[in-house]
Amino acid sequence: MVTLHFPIAILLTLLHQAEPRVETSVFVLKGQDVRLNVQTNVTLQYVDVLYWKFNRSDNVVKYPPKVTFERYQGRVEFSEGNLSLLLKNLQEGDSGLYDAVVSGNKDSNVAAYLIKVQVRVMPPVLTVDSNSTINDTCTCTHNKLDYMLYKLHSRPDCP
Ligand SMILES: *[C@@H]1O[C@H](CO)[C@@H](O)[C@H](O)[C@H]1NC(C)=O
Ligand SMILES: *[C@@H]1O[C@H](CO)[C@@H](O)[C@H](O)[C@H]1NC(C)=O
Ligand SMILES: *[C@@H]1O[C@H](CO)[C@@H](O)[C@H](O)[C@H]1NC(C)=O
Ligand SMILES: *[C@@H]1O[C@H](CO)[C@@H](O)[C@H](O)[C@H]1NC(C)=O
Ligand SMILES: *[C@@H]1O[C@H](CO)[C@@H](O)[C@H](O)[C@H]1NC(C)=O
């Protein structure tokens, strides 16, 4: 699981910045979890409601009272203590913008993350050994592997 922390210096700078803020890009491997923290010092007033949203339109959770919207039930966990959102078992379709908005007398953006879910790419299974016994294995049967090895070593002819 990846936890995102803003260095204190940056956090303090952000506290004095007006919104909108640039979103933080996060790359996550498919199937992993990621915790998104609010990026400012949020103190909810009694009129305030916090929303975590996806792609600006889908509501993920709101608080208070704590509600996880239907599409996200079982896939996210919201922490009331620090207002962070845990996204679990991310899939490619979960890529997009996640932001947190506090709605009170006015809306204020308190976090924005651009999540990019990546599929782990397997390295190709091809090992080249300088001591390989190509000469022995290239039997000119013209099967694909022989041909590949033959091309790879640019040998003029099969023995
Ligand atoms: C957060 O804000 C509250 C109220 O404005 C303040 O009392 C508190 O010290 C702040 N915390 C930090 C870590 O800045
Ligand atoms: C927020 O709370 C959750 C659950 O209690 C915890 O796992 C996480 O580490 C906390 N994040 C921060 C930045 O404190
Ligand atoms: C969310 O937004 C991103 C970036 O604009 C887009 O690539 C993605 O398809 C959107 N996802 C959904 C489910 O709308
Ligand atoms: C390659 O062959 C030489 C001589 O037989 C041997 O000393 C060396 O350890 C071999 N290298 C590898 C990577 O197998
Ligand atoms: C492989 O063939 C090349 C020339 O075709 C030869 O120089 C080399 O000694 C041979 N290697 C082995 C391991 O037979």
TrEMBL record:
<keyword id="KW-0472">Membrane</keyword>
<dbReference type="InterPro" id="IPR013106">
    <property type="entry name" value="Ig_V-set"/>
</dbReference>
<protein>
    <recommendedName>
        <fullName>Immunoglobulin V-set domain-containing protein</fullName>
    </recommendedName>
</protein>
<keyword id="KW-0732">Signal</keyword>
<dbReference type="Pfam" id="PF07686">
    <property type="entry name" value="V-set"/>
</dbReference>
<dbReference type="InterPro" id="IPR015631">
    <property type="entry name" value="CD2/SLAM_rcpt"/>
</dbReference>
<feature type="domain" description="Immunoglobulin V-set">
    <location>
        <begin position="23"/>
        <end position="111"/>
    </location>
</feature>
<feature type="signal peptide">
    <location>
        <begin position="1"/>
        <end position="20"/>
    </location>
</feature>
<dbReference type="InterPro" id="IPR036179">
    <property type="entry name" value="Ig-like_dom_sf"/>
</dbReference>
<dbReference type="GO" id="GO:0016020">
    <property type="term" value="C:membrane"/>
</dbReference>
<keyword id="KW-0325">Glycoprotein</keyword>
<dbReference type="InterPro" id="IPR013783">
    <property type="entry name" value="Ig-like_fold"/>
</dbReference>
